[in-house]
Design a protein that fits this description.
This protein is α+β, with helices and mostly antiparallel strands and 357 residues long. The chain has 6 helices and 27 strands. It is elongated and about 75 Å long. The termini are far apart.
């Protein structure tokens, strides 16, 4: 600051300098307020987004199933039918690949927002989950997983100012296996059986059958391998490995369960004396298995004289001729009922089971 020999001029200079300082301080204060508001907005947004991230680790292992549905703005974790809301919907590309918005895909698979980064200059998205990383660039048919490049048959896309990633490639890179079933993208941890019960729960929630009709669930698509079950040797599938799913009797009130191309289970009614199974089948004689609380297998056969498509097979619960040396059958001692001994099977939990007491 330059001063004059005149006191009056100096006072004028000081006054001007003071006014400029006040104006400058006001500007800085205003900028500070704007900056603070912006930071608060970003932080609030980050927290809001963080709530959508799903905790998928249990004892350091991926432990949840994740289901996206094409055209729907929710995804489902671990069979929870409430779902998690999204502000965009997955879609299928002309190449037949399902695309999901990057943040929602990452959050659903357990990647928090701090581990989802975006490089605007390169158009590169990076997702990190534990020790696994996945890097993808918009327009480039390549995914880099833990430093290893792999070619893809599609490339990430920008749509409505949002980045969409091919779900299968990203999920597999982060430790999941993926299947596509009836418009659903299902991801579950590698080395774990397909989450049939979760799929069934979500499918029943989202499917809207015509009035008077029920949705149909195909065991061949969503079932788990029969191998390893105590009753596996009773299930004979000549077309390949047999599969099964576990349902309750109430599930059959809302969904038909297709076992094979010629057998669909439509309903079951259980009481202490009889089990009545309604089937759409061409098989004249049908068998079920009763599994008791000591894992003993009790075979039951039944014939049908009903010529209609929906045939009702009645199986006796206490049946001395079939129990042999086993104690008489008590419905409260039966854990599950296995429907179908040729092809795929359905395991129905018994609502009257007393827990072995």
């Amino acid at each position: 600051m330059i001063f004059s020999s005149s006191p009056i001029v100096n006072r004028a200079i000081l006054s001007m300098w003071a006014n400029e300082r006040v104006i400058l301080m006001k500007k800085k204060f205003a900028v500070g307020i704007v900056t603070g508001c912006l930071a608060l907005t970003l932080a609030t947004g980050a927290l809001a987004e963080q709530k959508e991230q799903v905790e998928v680790y249990e004892q350091n292992k991926l432990a949840k199933s994740v289901i996206f549905i094409v055209g729907q703005d929710k995804y489902y974790v671990d069979g929870d039918t409430k779902g998690v809301q999204m502000d965009a919907t997955p879609y299928i590309s002309p190449q037949g690949r399902t695309f999901v918005p990057v943040r929602f895909l990452g959050n659903a698979l357990g990647v928090d927002n701090e581990n989802i980064s975006w490089d605007g200059e390169e158009g590169k998205a990076t997702l990190t989950l534990g020790e696994a990383t996945a890097e993808l660039i918009v327009g480039k048919q390549q995914i880099v997983t833990n430093g290893q490049a792999k070619e893809m048959d599609v490339a990430p896309e920008l749509k409505n100012s949002r980045t969409f990633l091919p779900a299968r490639f990203v999920a597999e890179a982060l430790g999941y296996q993926v299947d596509f079933l009836n418009g659903m993208v299902v991801a579950w941890p590698q080395g774990v059986e397909k989450p049939a019960e979760d799929i069934l729960a979500v499918q029943q929630q989202v499917q809207q059958p015509e009035p008077g009709q029920q949705s149909t669930v195909d065991v061949g698509q969503i079932g788990k391998p029969v191998a390893g079950q105590p009753w596996a040797e009773w299930v004979d599938n000549l077309d390949g490995p047999s599969k099964y799913i576990t349902v309750s009797d109430s599930d059959l009130k809302t969904s038909d369960i297709q076992l094979t191309s010629n057998t669909t289970v439509k309903d079951i009614v259980i009481d202490k004396d009889n089990i009545e199974v309604t089937l759409k089948t061409t098989t004249p004689i049908f068998s079920i298995l009763l599994i008791d609380d000591e894992n003993r297998i009790r075979l039951r056969d039944a014939g049908s004289k009903d010529p209609a498509d929906n045939r009702k097979f009645t199986f006796k619960v206490p049946y001395t001729n079939y129990d042999g040396d086993y104690p008489p059958t008590d419905i409260t001692k039966i854990k599950t009922i296995i429907i179908g001994t040729v092809g795929n099977a359905l395991e129905v939990t018994n609502p009257y089971y007393g827990g072995g007491k």
